Amino acid sequence: METMVCPMGGGATRLYSALTQTFSSSSLLPLPPSHLDPQQAADTNLDPGFCQDQKGSPVCPPDSVELLRQCEEALRDKPPRFHREFIHLNVRDSTPIRVMQWNILAQALGEGLDSFVQCPLEALNWSRRKYLILEEILAYRPHILCLQEVDHYYDTFQPVLAGLGYSSNFCPKPWSPCLDVEGNNGPDGCALFFDQSRFELLDSMNIRLSAMMIPTNQVAVVMMLRCCSTGKCVCVAVTHLKARSGWEWLRSAQGSDLLRHLQNVVQKHCGGAAGETCSDIPLLICGDFNAIPTEEVYRRFITSPLGLDSAYKKLSQDGLKEPEYTTWKIRPTGECCTTLDYIWYSQDMLRVDAVLDMPTEEQIGPNRLPSFSYASDHLSLVCDFSFKEKK
């Protein structure tokens, strides 16, 4: 049976075709270039809202304060974004590592397949959503930024954030549902950004997650980074597991596959033997797991020999419960208010110094997410970490 997909534009088409044709059966996907060459930039049609052409080269605002002002100016006639506070758990480290996890909602899905019945269509327009997304990122200015459902990587997020000093990699889904939406901007996927003033890239890989040795449609980006101020390494991953009920077994298998890959990456950089658990390189794993805390994949992470814990449990009084929600939306099938997003960390090697609180039900409003105040149906998670001293 022939599958019909909508055409994509320019360089994104060639990149996607090359990925899917050459690596359709492999778990390791090729790394796309961190920076576009001039021809790729021309093919990708950089978003004119942020990038202006000067002498044939794309130029992006180099100053985060100026870009934030530009976003606020573009949104001045709409409700302000949610006011959220950091909950400080420890004495602030002089050089904390700020990590942001966010499913930003793919533009093609927001306007097409996701059917947010209480969200005004105007609030879903890319012409304003892009400002809301960048405003959220710039307001917290993370050192490590993990995004899912990214379908405007090459024309917006990569060039704009590169202009602010971020390096990154992007891994598209092999069969992105975005491609079924007319006028799409290419496949969605996971993107991992890091601040080059804080970290040096040692290693990077794009992974197509498997279940029982069978490649699936879900992916992850993994990077080994060295902190410039301390010289210590940290292994960071971003992923987006299979959605919807009935697929709990698949999410569990995908989570196990990701943990296996991460253990191998850490062992490689520790120089340890296969099967050993390295105690020198901590892990940070961010993602939309599409799994509530009672699911098997959550239990696999919490009981992993890698010594992981979920940072957002720190918001609860006893430190044992996840937030009541990280996503809150209304679709034709009904209202969904639940926790699906996590920042996992190596609890023996990293300390959670601060956690950004969740907006209240009153702030979110009766029509839930997305809205004029918030660009996505998922809330961003932001944490400050510091390295623990060895005992």
How big a fraction of the residues is strand?
A: 25-35%
Straight-line N-to-C gap: 61 Å
- Give the structural class: alpha+beta
CATH superfamily caption: Endonuclease/exonuclease/phosphatase
Which segments are poorly predicted (pLDDT under 50) over 5 or more consecutive residues?
1-26, 34-43, 53-57
Number of DSSP helices? 9
Reading the helices and strands in chain order gives HEHEEHEEHHEHEEEEEHEHEEEEEHE
For the record, the CATH architecture stands as 4-Layer Sandwich
* Overall pLDDT metric: 86
Major sheet, described briefly?
A: 7 strands, mixed
Q: Number of domains in the coordinates?
A: 1
State the CATH class: Alpha Beta
Q: What does this molecule look like?
A:
- With 391 residues, the chain is α+β, with helices and mostly antiparallel strands.
- The chain has one domain: Deoxyribonuclease I, Chain A (4-Layer Sandwich).
- Helix content is 24%, strand content 29%.
- The protein has 9 helices and 18 strands.
- The strands form 4 sheets. It has a 7-stranded mixed sheet, with helices on one face.
- Strand 14 and strand 15 form a beta hairpin.
- Helix 3 packs across helix 5 and helix 7 runs parallel beside helix 8.
- It is globular, with a radius of gyration of 20 Å.
Could you name the key traits of this structure?
globular, seven-stranded mixed beta sheet, disordered N terminus, 24% helix, 391 residues, magnesium, alpha+beta
Quick synopsis:
It is built from nine helices and 18 strands. By secondary structure, the protein is α+β, with helices and mostly antiparallel strands. It has one domain: Deoxyribonuclease I, Chain A (4-Layer Sandwich).
